[in-house]
Amino acid sequence: MRDEPMPRPDPQALLDWYDRHARALPWRVGPAARLRGERPDPYRVWLSEIMLQQTTVAAVRDYFHAFTTRWPTVQALAAAQDADVMATWAGLGYYARARNLLKCARVVTDVHDGTFPDDHATLLTLPGVGPYAAAAIAAIAFDDPQTVVDGNVERVMARLFDEHTPLPAAKPILTDHAARLTPRERPGCYAQGVMDLGATICTPKRPACGLCPWRKSCAAWAEGTAAELPKKAPKKRKPTRLGIAYLARRIDGAWLLERRPDKGLLGGMLGWPGSDWGEEAPQDNPPIRAEWKTLNAEARHTFTHFHLRLTVKTALVPLDRRPLRGEFIELPDFSPADLPTVMRKAFDLAQGQ
DNA sequence: GAGTCGTGGAA
DNA sequence: TTTCCAAGACT
Length: 353
What we know:
- The chain is α+β, with helices and mostly antiparallel strands.
- It folds into 2 domains: about 10-230, Orthogonal Bundle (Endonuclease III, domain 1), CATH 1.10.340; about 240-350, Alpha-Beta Complex (Nucleoside Triphosphate Pyrophosphohydrolase).
- It has 14 helices and 7 strands.
- The strands form 2 sheets. Strands 1, 4, 5 and 6 form a 4-stranded mixed β-sheet that branches. The chain has a 3-stranded antiparallel β-sheet with strand order 3-2-7, with no helix packed on it.
- The chain is globular and about 80 Å long.
- The termini are far apart.
- The structure holds a DNA duplex.
- GO terms for molecular function: 4 iron, 4 sulfur cluster binding; 8-oxo-7,8-dihydroguanine DNA N-glycosylase activity; adenine/guanine mispair binding; metal ion binding; oxidized purine DNA binding; purine-specific mismatch base pair DNA N-glycosylase activity.
- Belongs to the Nth/MutY family.
- Adenine glycosylase active on G-A mispairs. MutY also corrects error-prone DNA synthesis past GO lesions which are due to the oxidatively damaged form of guanine: 7,8-dihydro-8-oxoguanine (8-oxo-dGTP).
- It is an enzyme of class 3 (hydrolase).
């Protein structure tokens, strides 16, 4: 054990580190502009925070650009067609975020007069905005000293205070630590600084403690336990599910597609008509009468909680044939880029054969 | 509290 | 190939 108490981590040291190492990101205001008093656009802060949930900066970049180019304001987004928003989100995952994004834009436009609320409690009422996002938006866009706790902050706090209680039980403890450290000055920069620290220095594996501005006040560093924190509850193994996807192309080039129901997996997204996905062999129930051919290879895809092996069947159908399910969409109204990744994999297989 | 909900990159 | 994981929210 240590014989001396650990010095309290200094928020100012973290802010100094952030000023020197902050990454330039499209939703951030640079240091020069900030010194001129410029504030980040709440719409862009909100959009980035939703996109960044469980998603890397690298994956978000192009999507953020696509959204802000096509819909520069929350009013513009609120006026968008649902299908266009879902298609533009396609490939980013967690599609409930896109559905809630549109709901939220319409609430802000219709209920809040097109202006984002600036307080945590009201932000929390917005669709898709939870405790993390509400705190992050309040801190970053409005300089409100809210406690921002994401996966990075949990990891940094677990290490600073050498907390061995496994997540998620440790969450209240770590949140309490984070709250005590949050400064009243520049809370937005501080929040982004801790998250940047977690993303670049205090990483899940092989943390670069030698570069950390908080090393001297880190209990896990003193104990040599940083790399094994935070502890997490053991994960369940993923079962494998089986399914069939039916890719019917009409002779004029139109594809037979189906809008998935809003609730559940890939909710609100376009996809191929298909069987249910279960652990038993799927029932062959084509969406249109045709001579179906089964591809040799299957589309494999892993979701959050199961593996999928998707048998792909293809057919060419005449112009006047009516489908039992779904509807034909002609090019260019349909692009494979509008599909969630698992559906695009099936399309790629069909194209390749 | 536990399960659901995507994807791609890294090791 | 498999596992882990990334600025969580919702039920």
